[in-house]
Design goal:
Elements (H helix, E strand, L loop, with lengths): L6 H13 L46 E3 L7 E3 L30 E3 L6 H4 L17 E5 L8 E5 L11 E5 L8 E7 L13 H8 L9 H16 L7 E8 L3 H19 L6 E8 L5 E12 L28 E11 L8 E6 L12 H10 L1 E5 L10 H9 L4 H24 L23 E5 L1 H12 L5 E5 L5 H4 L6 H11 L3 H15 L23 E7 L7 H11 L2 E2 L30 E6 L26 H13 L11 E2 L3
Parallel strand pairs: 12-13, 12-14, 14-15, 15-16, 16-18, 17-18, 18-19
Antiparallel strand pairs: 1-2, 3-6, 4-7, 5-6, 7-8, 9-10, 10-11, 11-13
Helix pairs in contact: 1-7, 1-11, 5-8, 6-14, 7-11
């Protein structure tokens, strides 16, 4: 489900963004940020990387923007000094980024190559990811810990309109490994005529001259020697080399440490009890499917810096550098539960529901959720994904005008996952003690003897992956029309152009915008599936069980790009139903490359099912679909898809509801 901001709201938020105060710095001291310098002024002295003069932070991510730090798991710490500035001259203050010990595991690799033609160069497109692993691939990404060549696809930013300001984007087809260091090489690049593109002047000097101490490029040349040595060790020489750099991926502690800390701290205090809650409204005989609708508030400890943790708040940090509670700070967690009529005869299974983009808990009353509850005996309770709920829209828009404020979104998202955890505990440990959750003769309406599960759609499918990874209670989750990595999703979503007006107003340069998306993904990782995908199924996080997930993807989805769902499936080790789609539906050389098929049903593992409603193939560029109808809501509205979801949530088995054919839906 989508939430659209009106143009009037966007206009109002543009003003709010201009006037909103920047957040104070809270991280380890870093040199003051300055406005992005011009290409001519970029030198090692101002913190910029001179090997890609198009913009200060290019190439990105890069270990040029880190320093050694023995206290971190990676041995490094991000140390950006110069960032982007918005149209008002306000720089992104890097303090919150500088807490990290590396970069996003799903980070796009950004650089700038004037005149580049990817087809003439032979770079791997999204339709031929396997080509990225060729020994002679013109773009090579290597894990230095294992020597493995990493799969990716390369694209030029299709949104760029200014000549010479188009980003080269290399997107990992499977998330990078936490804590690992990677080297990147661009070589034998060609323009549209097939002519070789020479390296820029700075990188030519680094490659071919012996620079002396005191030369502006001396330190950069020293840093690059290790990169060149790693490339040579893995069969990539200097011939035809256009640009090379390295980067380190953030550790598990850096990505998930805050969330795990607030979860463990809050649950330790809660013990085996139910969280406190109040019921504020009960509706009887809602319709022919729902016997009772219950609304109320659960109370969770708040780790945010303002009372009740409203939009715009951020973590309060203690002396140990971890999120800490202020005295008596409590987070109200509004909830809404839909209890099916079947529960009057047999208690319903407890399930959390995750709402869509910038929505609210009321979406649990949607027709498809009621149908799932009534057909299969589930009681669904929902709360808000605070940080990206309807109440957050003004703050989200404000943050798009001043990206320093993006911390407020990421921190509230983590508090939101804790809120869902407390709602789940109340469902299974407290609600049935209240008359609102019992029949007239006192029997419970929720079966607390069955496991808590999760079902979410759209944003609920995205955030639900992160919640699943950190939940000590959820073992099985259905992620409807899901994906991960907003830095990939935003440009490809039909929901984004409204909000992009703010980004266009405050960060009008399209090359800067791609850098901005890569930067905010580093913070977004803390609150969405991209930062937790490695632990979503296998390799569980500390004090967390292993999980299984079922992904339901809509072919041709206008709002959540299926290509990003494919990346998630590869990362979490999900298998896919085959045949995935009818022959000719995708132009890929190897359709669904790197995602193995399900060999036999019922399948006891994590899976991806692609539901095809006949909508056109999405664009192969980083732009949203515009052709045909949007199939985004089709899987959840299919009785067969719901039957498969219910079987999985109840038994952990993926059943075949499509036979030896693609899974299709007639809209």
């Amino acid at each position: 489900m989508r939430a659209r901001a009106s143009l009037a709201l966007v206009a109002a938020a543009l003003t709010a963004a201009a006037l909103a105060p920047a957040l104070p710095a809270t991280a380890a001291p870093a040199r003051p940020a300055a406005a992005s310098p011009t290409a001519a002024s970029a030198t090692t002295g101002d913190g910029c990387d001179p090997i890609d003069p198009a913009a200060c932070l290019l190439p990105f991510p890069s270990d040029w923007y880190t320093v050694r730090d023995r206290s971190t798991p990676t041995g490094r710490r991000v140390n950006m000094r110069t960032t982007l500035s918005n149209a008002l001259g306000m720089p992104i203050r890097p303090a919150e980024w500088n807490r990290a010990d590396g970069f996003s595991p799903g980070s796009m690799l950004l650089s700038h190559v004037p005149g580049l033609d990817l087809a003439r160069t032979g770079a791997a497109p999204v339709t031929d990811i396997g080509a990225s692993l060729r020994r002679d691939a013109p773009i090579t990404v290597i894990d230095t810990a294992t020597g493995e060549r990493w799969p990716y696809w390369a694209e030029l930013d299709a949104n760029a309109t200014t000549p010479g300001r188009q980003a080269l984007i290399v997107r990992p087809a499977r998330n990078f490994v936490e804590g690992h260091r990677y080297v990147v090489a661009l070589r034998d690049l060609r323009d549209a005529s097939g002519k070789a593109i020479a390296p820029n002047a700075a990188y030519r000097r680094i490659l071919h001259e012996r620079l002396a101490p005191g030369d502006p490029l001396y330190e950069r040349q020293r840093a690059n020697r290790r990169v060149l040595a790693d490339l040579k060790r893995h069969g990539v020489g200097r011939d035809g080399l256009h640009l090379a750099w390295d980067f380190t991926v953030a550790s598990r502690r850096s990505l998930a440490g805050r969330m795990l800390h607030i979860r463990d701290d809050a649950l330790r205090d809660l013990g085996s009890r139910s969280p406190a809650f109040v019921v504020t409204e009960v509706r009887e005989n809602v319709d022919d499917r729902i016997a009772r609708e219950v609304k109320g508030t659960v109370f969770a400890p708040s780790y945010l810096d303002l009372p009740g943790g409203p939009p715009g708040s951020r973590f309060h940090y203690g002396r140990d550098g971890r999120p800490a509670r202020l005295p008596f700070n409590t987070q109200p967690v509004p909830f809404q539960c839909e209890i099916p009529r079947s529960a009057l005869d047999e208690p319903a299974r407890p399930a959390l529901y995750g709402h869509g983009l910038l929505g609210g808990e009321g979406e649990v009353a949607a027709g498809n959720v009621k149908a799932m509850a009534a057909e299969h005996g589930f009681a669904f309770c929902a709360t808000r994904w605070i940080g990206m709920a309807n109440e957050d829209v003004p703050n989200v828009i404000s943050a798009l005008g001043d990206l320093t404020r993006f911390q407020t979104i990421a921190d509230r998202l983590q508090q939101g996952m804790l809120n869902f955890t407390f709602l789940g505990r109340a469902m299974t440990r407290g609600f049935t003690g209240h008359k609102a959750f019992r029949t007239a003769d006192g029997r419970p309406l929720i079966d607390t003897g069955t496991a808590l599960t999760f079902d979410g759609n759209s944003q609920g499918g995205i955030m639900g992956g992160a919640l699943t990874a950190v939940s000590p209670d959820i073992r099985r989750a259905v992620l409807g029309v899901p994906a991960m990595n907003y830095s990939t999703l935003l440009n490809r979503s039909s929901d984004f152009p409204t909000y992009a007006q703010v980004l266009n107003a405050f960060y009008p340069d399209k090359l800067d915008q791609q850098i901005a998306l890569a930067l905010i993904q580093m913070l977004w990782d803390r609150g969405e599936a991209n930062g937790y995908a490695r632990h979503m199924t296998g390799d569980p996080l500390p004090r967390t069980p292993s999980h299984r997930v079922l992904m339901h993807v809509a072919f041709g989805d206008h709002q959540v790009a299926p290509v990003a769902a494919d990346v998630q499936a590869r990362t979490i080790g999900a298998r896919v139903h085959t045949p995935v789609v009818a022959p000719g539906r995708v132009p890929d050389k190897v359709p669904y490359w790197g995602i193995p098929g399900i060999r036999k049903y019922p399948y006891r593992g994590s899976a991806m099912i692609v539901w095809d409603s006949g909508s056109p193939l999405p664009p192969l560029t980083n732009t949203p679909p515009t052709a045909g109808r949007d199939p985004h809501s089709d899987p959840r509205n299919s009785p067969e898809a719901r039957r498969q979801k219910a079987a999985f949530l109840k038994t952990g088995e993926v059943i075949d509801v499509c036979g030896a054919a693609p899974c299709t839906i007639t809209p």
